[in-house]
Specification:
Length: 110
């Protein structure tokens, strides 16, 4: 599990990807790692948080603008991973896009 993303002061945007996996793992881990690296190199990317338990996964990526999200969605290698996900790795998924207007929290530090 990764730590929490260090996001800027709002507003910014969140893409929430909730998924249920199939039993097929072939190429999944490598593609997932590649997508994380590729997303991090995209203009407007702010960070990511992801968890998976008992087949249910939730990944939240953070972006500066809706345009940055649209650009990531259209990125060719990402589009190929989306196709492979629909055909092979996911039973179902939902994508929700939200504007983060307020943020607060608690951190005890390292």
């Amino acid at each position: 599990m990764r730590g929490m993303a260090m996001t800027p002061e709002p507003p910014y945007y969140a893409v929430i990807f909730t998924s249920v996996r199939t039993d097929t793992d072939e190429g999944y881990k490598e593609t997932s790692e590649r997508m994380l690296k590729l997303a991090a190199a995209q203009p407007g990317y702010l960070g990511v948080e992801s968890v998976r338990e008992a087949g249910l996964g939730i990944t939240v990526s953070y972006w500066k603008t809706p345009e940055a999200i649209r650009s990531w969605k259209r990125q060719m290698e990402h589009r190929e991973a989306q196709r492979k996900g629909r055909e092979t790795w996911y039973r179902s998924y939902r994508i929700r896009i939200c504007k983060v207007e307020r943020e607060y929290g608690f951190d005890t530090g390292p």
